[in-house]
Design brief:
Elements lengths: L3 H7 L5 H13 L8 H14 L8 H7 L13 H18 L7 E4 L8 E4 L24 E2 L2 E9 L7 E8 L18 E4 L3 E2 L4 H17 L7 E4 L23 E10 L2 E10 L5 E10 L5 H17 L4 H8 L9 H13 L2 H17 L4 H16 L11 H15 L4 H13 L3 H14 L4 H13 L3 H14 L5 H13 L3 H11 L5 H13 L3 H15 L6 H8 L3 H13 L13 H6 L5
Parallel strand pairs: 6-8, 6-9, 7-9
Antiparallel strand pairs: 1-2, 3-4, 4-5, 9-10, 10-11
Length: 601
Amino acid sequence: MQTPMQAAKERAPPSAEDVRAQVQRIVADPTFPGAGRCGAFLRYVTEETLAGRGKRIKGYTIATEVFGRGEDFSQDDPVVRIEAGRLRRALELYYLAAGNADPIRIDIAKGGYVPTFSWLSAAVPPEAPASGPQAPEIAVERTRRRGRIAVSASSAALGAAGIAVALAWWIAPPPMTNDPVGSFAPGGPTLVVAPFSDLGGGPEAALYAAGLTDELLTALPRFKELKVFGRDSFAPPPDASGDRVPVVETGARFILAGGVRVAGRQVRVTARLMETASRAILWSTTYDGDLDARSLFSIQKEVADKVATAIAQPYGIIARTDTAQPPPDGLGAYACTLRFYAYRSDLGAAQHADVRSCLEDAVARSPGYATAWAMLSMVYLDEDRFRYNRRSDALTAVDRALQAAKRAVELDPENARGLQALMTALFFYRQPQESLRVGERALAVNPNDTELLSEFGSRLALSGQWERGAAIMEEALSRNPNASGYSWGALALANYMLGNYEKAASEIQRADIQKFPLFHVVAAIIHAERGMTEEARRESRAFALMGSDYLVNLTTELETRLGRPQDRARILAGLRKAGLEPRDGPDEQPSSTVADSLPPG
């Protein structure tokens, strides 16, 4: 008996009419963001390909003809790459759920923008889009055997009983490209964004609610530690408060829901993050906007950015919840990412070795997990820049860091953590301009990632752009006061270099990373500049006991970290003022010698 796969292979390729019908089926489905750029992008590349103009589909033509960019469009503008990634993810999610029984599959392989059209099965094309509240959520496990992929799917249906439905089907294997699903942490958190509700105020409230939902579905998936699903197939009855709550169990651990109310020229948005199993509200907030002062679109984008930053970023609500209360079935490789952020908060050498081992195991078991490669790159780099748990490998720590960062970006060019790792590795590879260029690209990918924002500000500052770097770090920390101690320490150093000694003193106290040697040297030079002799002496002694090897060949050390000669001279003067005398070479440099040369603390 013929399988659907064999029957599909024997058919002629899909006709132009078949393909256009499939495009309409996709963009009409409520789970696909067809009203925005995704729909326009898909229609454009489809029509160009059907017209025989596939070779003409380039980043420039898409940018100018679909996204309205001018003729001066440059490839440095990442809009096409970002939207192409978003479209690929939207297509994949569509075929995992609502489109699993469609007759035609449309794919856009990484590395290009020309779509391919293939029969998904021998079924007769349905007359109407396959969508609705009973579309299943699919958990996919792919195993390529004999050119086929077996896909198992499960779903929780409407109602309290939650009837499980199992589906199975054969599909043609996609082109051998890096699967974007591999960017996500095995065992990591999943989030469903419920359509925000219209809570009254006329047509503007409905427009705002739809627009805000779409903005959230753009902002949240940029955080690759989190897997995000849109779910428009809700049947939400009003609860006692008049708000709406989703009644479809999705298999996701978290649900983001909310509502929009308009009264005259005032807009109020409520948002809340819930745990699906317990229905406990983990976080909620309210945003108010004035339509006389700002446009509807600018308000909804600002709200979406604030919500995404609060719940999805490192040290955000979801990460803190998973750290405090791991799910009962475990966290898998995702646990390594949580341990990485805990290490970044503390910066202790013992934690470094543990996190390095965990991440090496994670990439061995899940080699497509781009975020783990990025974090491993930064941990490798810490062997050199922080003198932590050094290995005597054939490759230097910086070389290994650069290789791991490149691997992360190859797996997922839109992974902000991968770009952050590449930026940092290039900086310590003494390519500061290339480092900053990658940093700018990373911010274009995810401007709401405050961990990235703070690291980029630090690289700018150490390159000599102290004022701009400090401003960026301050913005990051104002949006995420729970950030790592390293971020506060970097801002303290920037304000020291700018002569803002009171601010620097306040910030170094907030850093409070006592196990990190360089924390003590920054604190020492800040206190010495403020005339706080006893405090400077105490921090100098702690640094000498923990990190005396930094004082060996200090000229080389400072050249690695600071871009301008005048900045290196400033740090040297600060060290001497704090009572730390650098050595000219590696001769006779035990920690006790340096510590004993200081006055008693």
